[in-house]
Specification:
The structure is a homodimer of 148-residue chains. Chain A has 148 residues and is mainly alpha-helical. Chain A has one domain: Orthogonal Bundle (Arc Repressor Mutant, subunit A). Helices cover 51% and strands 5% of the residues of chain A. The longest helix of chain A has 20 residues. Chain A is elongated. At the A-B interface, helix 1, helix 2, helix 5 and helix 6 of A face helix 1, helix 2, helix 5 and helix 6 of B. The structure holds a DNA duplex (30 and 30 nucleotides).
Chain lengths: 148, 148
DNA sequence: AAGTGTGTCGATGCTACTATTACATATAAT
DNA sequence: ATTATATGTAATAGTAGCATCGACACACTT
């Protein structure tokens, strides 16, 4: 199934912003670090901005900054901002309505699928971009803020 | 994100087998109920059989049966049997190794992604095909086994 | 006024998934 | 034995979502 790398790259972007010294970063710089194209970055930034996680500044010396403290941005916020497909896809063509199983299977599965999704989301809600940034700093043996 | 319809259809298949009276069901019958093609069903059955969840019988009067009691088949077993893509896809092209963030972001995210995956899997491990079959029977107002 | 960076559109290529046809193989029924 | 039946797998084609790339209008800074 078509799976998106958006979540991983979005966390990457936000972590880079969190690790920096607060100066705006250009989409080109972020693209270099994430090894993708500036257009992809800008597409993600557009979603992150809509979600209130980042804000951008036009013009020379401009770029993107975090809209709030990294510790206040949960990975769940990022997940919801950039992922749009359902975690569990159901039948492409709806099952046979008149069948004993086909007519009820979706409703029967639904509570379990919901709980599974919540189980995942609860874990993503426990970790913030600040946590990831700290961990990156520890692994990379540098201190924040990092001036590029 | 990452899910095909395989999981939903596989649960459908197993539930249909669980609801029945134990007689083997043909891929054509299952395809009718799930509103898909017999080949898709057989492809799923091939995986389910490899995972030890079903067994098939060739020839006239043949078909597929559960290999063990429905109550002993966890949805997690089904999930693992038919899904092969990772829940979280990482960067399509690996991030910049020499960057402070790019070089460490994957390792920094990994524990969280693992916990999120476990959160989902734990929920799927709590429910069995037997539970789903009972719920389908309740919703459809019939009793098991159901003779077709 | 000139330079810079964002935001978005359209086109292209790629990959995963589903549907469908076809056929070889194995089993049951007669 | 012969025939009918059902699985299992391969090949093909069509579909959808995603990432890449080029281009450009718009906004802001200097």
């Amino acid at each position: 199934m078509p799976t998106s790398t958006r979540f991983a790259v979005a966390v990457h972007i936000l972590t880079a912003l969190a690790v920096g010294d607060g100066k705006p970063m250009r989409s080109e710089d972020l693209a270099y670090s994430a090894n993708t194209s500036p257009v992809v970055i800008r597409g993600l930034l557009s979603r992150l901005s809509d979600a209130g996680l980042t804000r951008s500044q036009l013009g020379a010396g401009g770029g993107t900054m975090l809209a709030r403290a990294a510790k206040k941005i949960k990975l769940l916020d990022v997940y919801e901002a950039v992922e749009d497909t359902e975690l569990f896809s159901l039948h492409r063509t709806p099952p046979c309505e008149s069948c004993a199983v086909g007519g009820n299977i979706l409703e029967a599965m639904q509570p379990t699928l919901m709980r599974a999704r919540k189980g995942l989301e609860n874990e993503l809600a426990k970790v913030t971009i600040g946590d990831i940034a700290s961990e990156v700093a520890r692994l990379g043996r540098f201190t924040m803020p990092l001036t590029w």
